[in-house]
């Protein structure tokens, strides 16, 4: 390996506002041209480590540093945040926050403007950076609101590429992207690294998706410490990932279920490099044959029936075209598709936020068109993606009681309903706490509780697990499953493939304002045509099945899901 | 939603002027119109505005909805002035010529003349701002402010406001729908203090999430070197051409004439009654 | 004027954008026909307490100017400037409050409301009318009537909306406390 660029030595950090350190005893060296994935559960310190690399620690977030952190041989605390920004280019998770310019071109130019670059040089460098990330000439005058998530991320990347940085730092680059766009993002990062020869550091908890392209090393963190620093092949051969609460690639989990011993020599880092011996393949096949198929669900009545629904926004955008879909009573289903495919619009129409221009929506046999937003909510609840966008009361009890109070329910009845809801949602011990004292996942529960208090028959959740690590993701989903068992019909809008695969009985796929598929998730994720039209990704389980010589990849995927459910329920 | 400021991109000589020129001209023009009440001068300004609209290729229908606001505002203001001070004209011009009626609300030539002046004043000041809005690319606005001497940090605040208005508007809309579903109402059915409390139920989540947004954006800006130097350049900044200089000189002349008229008239008013 | 921190600059921009959105798109009908309540002054007061008088001035000035630009009824410089003046005055009057640290008690609420009423009366009862007389030579009776209505309406929104915002903000600030789970 060539020279080290970044070097942590016995490094520790404690925020001023906190009572204990966030990072302990970090020893980590990153060399020129290297590609490193830093992963770990939420709160493990990986974001703080990123802040240390790009200089936000200690220049924006104050605290106590220990040990040494050098960038190009100089202690970062002796540099300024501007010096560091010339060497470390950061692409933040929140692409709307990072997109500062009014148009694409202005945003890419931002750091050059701050360096007082002007005239032809400014335009040339902006165009060159745009070219490298594949932003077309025509896109340069567009405003951020007109771009997709993937395009915004490209702009962010171009914006840091205008400087010749030594390190690219990506903070959760996959968080806001649909699966296919995420895959492209990983390919783009790989390409940029090859072109520039800079080091790349990716902070991400979706290990399987990052490993879509070669990574030199994976650094695993837990509770402020580095617990492992090895090649992906080595890491995936051991139990550390799942022990730390990070999700393993699905094919690895499947191999483990089948009793296959994974070794670095098998190259498990990627499904395409994975080599299985005949004996291993036989193990996978026999696991498949010995796992029973789940019992078919009993027939259930239709709860929601949308027929030929069309909707256009006031600006003329034709968001829903002739939608026909249904939800059965007691189901838990997923609505999937890219941004702008119409899945959010559909849920808004169902909740009465928007009124469709043609077609009909019947709920339990009744046409809801005559009812107000508030009356819709008595039957169909809607939970926004970000709990912070719903919470307006200081105390948990008041927040959950809000909808009942606006409906004029007597106070004794409110107390009873709210207390019940809090118990169901596992919030009873916190009932006297202010909402602000809760974690993000608990806040999410509060918002779900505030909707449940109105006792709707169905709830729609927008991206219920966005931004959650594996443990919190599982917690939220098990909670939803529990509600589902209590008889509440649940519809989730998502582009998380794991979520649909593991929890939804069925998926309705939107694309370009139409429903293009409505089938069990295993069918959808193994259908190449639908996968590509809906910007999804084929699941690696399918590839594993084919690799193992099984004929029905679809059946294998289904069996895996059923088995996982069994494991969880035990 | 995207074009809230009604910028209309057309090839015209006025569009080709730099944003800074247009900003300076609007300011000079506005001061010229503000400072004098000379009827002759105020009568010329609206005519000039109409001519400029012709040059800019902005059509009446492009701005009709904005002109609707303007007209409503002018009528309302004139009515209010008459209701509250029907003798304001006499106070200003010092004479009284009753046309008809008697008592406090007798209609006088002086009052009518004052209303004519007020109308001309609005017409001198409003269309030029409309023209500025329709012909200036919002992207150029911050660069222009910086050009005329506003600190770049403050100029950039304006750019950030323009950048994030659509995002905040969308967020407000989403939050408001979700809260309405929970029964939050702001319609007339409720008492005023209840309406304000309802509004707060939407505002609180909006503002708390905006505080997070401020944090993210300021981190992003610092990581990209904002505030490093005493100056900064602008991608959308342009050099002044000859036409730019000419326009600024012309508007400076207007301001000069306005001041000169005040001096010659001996007051801000042109008085035909003496 | 000392150099602003980047955070203050961003707060001015986002504050002005919020002021704009509330003033331009959020219509709360008032008891007086055809007039809407300007809840943006509650927001302005809150932002001013958090970020200081200069930020308050700029948020009011920029936000109000953008609203006028967007409606196209011309820029009423007299009122735009007054929104800025309110930011300065209110910022100075509430300088002692420590909302940024998460403290906003009963006494602070009182200071906040009283300062709001005083500043609004000065601004809409004196500053705006005087500027209108200078610019438009409009009659004083009309201006003071208008000013009085605005002062009352804005004082009410500041007192209710502004206070609720401050209380919510202070509550959302994590404080080291002794929270216990209860069975």
SSE layout:
The complex is a heterotrimer of chains A (570), B (274) and C (183).
Chain A: E1 4-15, E2 23-31, E3 35-39, H1 46-54, H2 56-59, E4 63-71, E5 74-75, H3 81-87, E6 88-91, H4 95-98, H5 104-114, H6 119-132, H7 149-161, E7 167-171, H8 179-196, E8 199-203, H9 207-210, E9 217-222, E10 225-230, H10 232-237, H11 240-243, H12 250-257, H13 278-290, E11 302-312, E12 318-328, E13 332-336, H14 343-350, E14 358-363, E15 366-367, H15 373-377, E16 380-383, H16 396-406, H17 411-424, H18 440-452, E17 458-462, H19 470-485, E18 489-493, H20 497-503, E19 506-511, E20 514-519, H21 521-524, H22 528-533, H23 540-547, H24 553-569
Parallel strand pairs in A: 3-8, 3-9, 6-7, 7-8, 13-18, 13-19, 16-17, 17-18
Antiparallel strand pairs in A: 1-2, 1-4, 4-5, 9-10, 11-12, 11-14, 14-15, 19-20
Chain B: H1 13-16, H2 19-35, H3 39-56, H4 60-84, H5 88-93, E1 98-100, E2 107-108, H6 109-135, H7 138-147, H8 152-181, H9 192-223, H10 242-265
Antiparallel strand pairs in B: 1-2
Helix pairs in contact in B: 2-6, 2-7, 2-10, 3-6, 4-6, 7-8, 8-9
Chain C: H1 6-25, E1 28-29, E2 36-37, H2 40-51, H3 53-71, H4 77-93, H5 106-136, H6 140-172
Antiparallel strand pairs in C: 1-2
Task: Characterise this structure.
The complex is a heterotrimer of chains A (570), B (274) and C (183). By secondary structure, chain A is α/β, with parallel strands linked by helices. Chain A folds into 3 domains: 4-240, P-loop containing nucleotide triphosphate hydrolases (Rossmann fold); 249-290 and 542-570, no CATH class; 302-541, 3-Layer(aba) Sandwich (Rossmann fold), CATH 3.40.50. Chain A has 24 helices and 20 strands. Chain A has a 6-stranded mixed beta sheet, sandwiched between helices. A 6-stranded mixed beta sheet of chain A has the order 16-17-18-13-19-20, sandwiched between helices. Chain A is globular, with a radius of gyration of 25 Å. The mean pLDDT of chain A is 92. In chain B, a hairpin with a 6-residue loop joins strand 1 and strand 2. Chain B has 2 domains: 13-137 and 237-265, no CATH class; 166-223, no CATH class. Helices cover 70% and strands 2% of the residues of chain B. Chain B has helices at 13-16, 19-35, 39-56, 60-84, 88-93, 109-135, 138-147, 152-181, 192-223, 242-265, and strands at residues 98-100, 107-108. Chain B has a two-stranded antiparallel ribbon. Chain B is globular, with a radius of gyration of 24 Å. Chain C has 183 residues and is mostly helical. Helices cover 72% and strands 2% of the residues of chain C. Chain C contains 6 helices and 2 strands. In chain C, strands 1-2 form a two-stranded antiparallel sheet. In chain C, helix 5 runs antiparallel to helix 6 (140-172). The chains are: A alpha/beta (570), B mainly alpha (274), C mainly alpha (183). At the B-C interface, helix 4, helix 5, helix 6, helix 8 and helix 9 of B face helix 1, strand 1, helix 2, helix 3 and helix 6 of C.
């Amino acid at each position: 390996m060539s020279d080290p660029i970044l070097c942590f030595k016995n490094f520790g950090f404690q925020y001023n506002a906190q009572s204990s350190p966030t990072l302990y005893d970090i020893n980590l060296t990153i060399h020129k041209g290297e590609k490193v994935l830093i992963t770990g559960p939420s709160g493990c310190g990986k974001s703080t480590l990123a802040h240390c690399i790009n200089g936000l620690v200690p220049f924006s977030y104050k605290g106590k540093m220990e040990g040494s952190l050098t960038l190009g041989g100089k202690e970062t605390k002796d540099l300024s945040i501007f010096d560091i920004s010339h060497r470390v280019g950061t692409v933040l998770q929140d692409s709307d926050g990072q997109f500062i310019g009014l148009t694409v071109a202005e945003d890419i130019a931002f750091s050059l403007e701050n360096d007082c670059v002007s005239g032809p040089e400014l335009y040339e460098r902006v165009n060159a950076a745009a070219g490298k990330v594949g932003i077309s000439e025509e896109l340069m005058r567009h405003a951020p609101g007109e771009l997709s998530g993937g395009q915004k991320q490209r702009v962010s990347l171009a914006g840091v590429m205008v400087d010749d940085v030594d390190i690219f730092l990506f903070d959760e680059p996959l968080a806001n992207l649909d699966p296919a766009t995420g895959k492209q993002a990983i390919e783009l990062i790989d390409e940029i690294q090859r072109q520039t020869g800079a080091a790349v550091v990716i902070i991400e908890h979706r290990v399987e998706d990052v490993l879509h392209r070669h990574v030199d090393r994976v650094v695993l963190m837990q509770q402020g410490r580095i617990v492992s620093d090895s090649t992906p092949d080595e890491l995936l051969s051991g139990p550390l990932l799942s022990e730390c609460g990070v999700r393993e690639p699905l094919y690895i989990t499947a191999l483990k279920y089948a009793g296959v011993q994974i070794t670095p020599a098998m190259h498990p880092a990627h499904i395409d490099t994975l080599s299985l011996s005949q004996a291993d393949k036989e193990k996978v096949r026999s696991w498949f044959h010995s796992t029973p198929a789940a019992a078919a669900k009993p027939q259930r009545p239709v709860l929601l029936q949308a027929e030929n629904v069309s909707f256009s926004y006031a600006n003329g955008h034709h968001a829903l075209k002739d939608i026909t879909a249904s939800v059965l009573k007691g189901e838990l289903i997923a609505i999937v598709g890219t941004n702008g495919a119409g899945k959010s619009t559909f849920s808004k129409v169902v909740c009465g936020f928007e009124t469709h221009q043609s077609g009909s929506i019947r709920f339990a046999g009744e046409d809801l068109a005559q009812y107000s937003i508030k009356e819709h909510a008595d039957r169909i609840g809607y939970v926004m993606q970000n709990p912070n966008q719903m919470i307006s009361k200081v105390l948990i009890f008041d927040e959950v009681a809000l909808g009942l109070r606006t409906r004029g329910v007597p106070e004794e009845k409110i107390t009873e309903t709210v207390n019940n809801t809090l118990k169901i949602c596992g919030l009873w011990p916190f009932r006297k706490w202010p909402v602000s004292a809760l974690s993000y996942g608990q806040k999410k529960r509060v918002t779900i509780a505030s909707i449940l208090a109105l006792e709707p028959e169905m709830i729609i959740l927008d991206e219920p697990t966005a931004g959650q690590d594996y443990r919190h993701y599982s917690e939220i989903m098990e909670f939803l499953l529990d509600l589902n068992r209590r008889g509440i019909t649940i519809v989730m809008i998502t582009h998380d493939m794991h979520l649909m695969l593991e929890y939804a009985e069925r998926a309705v796929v939107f694309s370009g304002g139409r429903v293009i598929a409505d089938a069990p998730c295993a069918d959808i994720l193994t259908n190449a045509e639908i996968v590509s039209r809906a910007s999804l990704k084929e699941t690696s389980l399918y590839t594993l099945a084919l690799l193992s010589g099984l004929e029905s990849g679809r059946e294998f995927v289904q069996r895996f899901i059923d088995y996982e459910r069994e494991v969880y329920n035990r | 939603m995207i074009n809230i400021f009604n910028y209309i991109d057309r090839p015209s000589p006025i569009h080709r002027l730099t944003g800074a020129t247009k900003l300076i001209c609007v300011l000079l023009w506005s001061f010229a119109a503000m400072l004098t009440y000379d009827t002759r001068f105020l009568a010329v300004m609206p005519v000039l505005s109409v001519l400029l609209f012709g040059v800019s290729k902005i059509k009446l229908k492009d701005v009709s909805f904005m002109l609707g606001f303007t007209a409503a505002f002018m009528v309302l203001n004139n009515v209010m002035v008459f209701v509250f001070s029907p003798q304001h004209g006499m106070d200003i011009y010092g004479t009284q010529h009753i046309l008809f009626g008697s008592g406090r609300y007798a209609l006088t030539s002086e009052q009518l003349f004052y209303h004519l002046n007020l109308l001309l004043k609005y017409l001198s000041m409003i269309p030029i701002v409309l023209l500025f809005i329709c012909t200036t690319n919002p992207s150029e606005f911050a660069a222009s402010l910086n050009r005329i001497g506003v600190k770049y940090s403050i100029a950039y605040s304006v750019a950030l406001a323009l950048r994030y208005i659509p995002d905040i508007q969308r967020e407000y809309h989403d939050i408001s729908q979700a809260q309405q579903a929970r029964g939050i109402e702001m319609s007339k059915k409720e008492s005023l203090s209840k309406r304000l409390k309802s509004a707060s139920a939407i505002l609180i989540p909006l503002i708390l999430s905006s505080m997070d947004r401020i944090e993210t954006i300021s981190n992003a800006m610092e990581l990209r070197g904002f505030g490093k130097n005493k100056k900064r350049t602008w991608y959308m900044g342009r050099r002044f051409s000859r036409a730019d200089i000419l326009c600024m000189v012309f508007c400076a002349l207007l301001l000069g004439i306005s001041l000169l008229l005040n001096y010659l008239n001996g007051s801000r008013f042109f008085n035909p009654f003496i | 004027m000392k150099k602003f921190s980047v955070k203050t600059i961003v707060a001015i921009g986002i504050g002005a954008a919020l002021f704009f959105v509330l003033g331009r798109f959020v219509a709360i009908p008032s008891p007086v026909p055809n007039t809407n309540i300007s809840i943006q002054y509650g927001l302005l007061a809150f932002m001013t307490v958090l970020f200081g008088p200069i930020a308050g001035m700029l948020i009011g000035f920029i936000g109000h100017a953008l609203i006028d630009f967007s409606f196209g009824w011309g820029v009423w410089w007299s009122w735009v400037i007054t929104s800025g003046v309110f930011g300065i005055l209110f910022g100075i009057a509430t300088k002692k409050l420590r909302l940024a640290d998460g403290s906003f008690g009963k006494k602070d609420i009182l200071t906040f409301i009283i300062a709001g009423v005083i500043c609004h009366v000065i601004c809409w009862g004196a500053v705006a009318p005087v500027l209108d007389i200078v610019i438009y030579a409009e009659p004083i009776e009309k201006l003071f009537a208008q000013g009085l209505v605005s002062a009352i309406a804005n004082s009410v929104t500041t007192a209710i909306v502004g206070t609720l915002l401050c209380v919510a903000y202070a509550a959302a600030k994590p404080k080291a406390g002794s929270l216990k789970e209860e069975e």
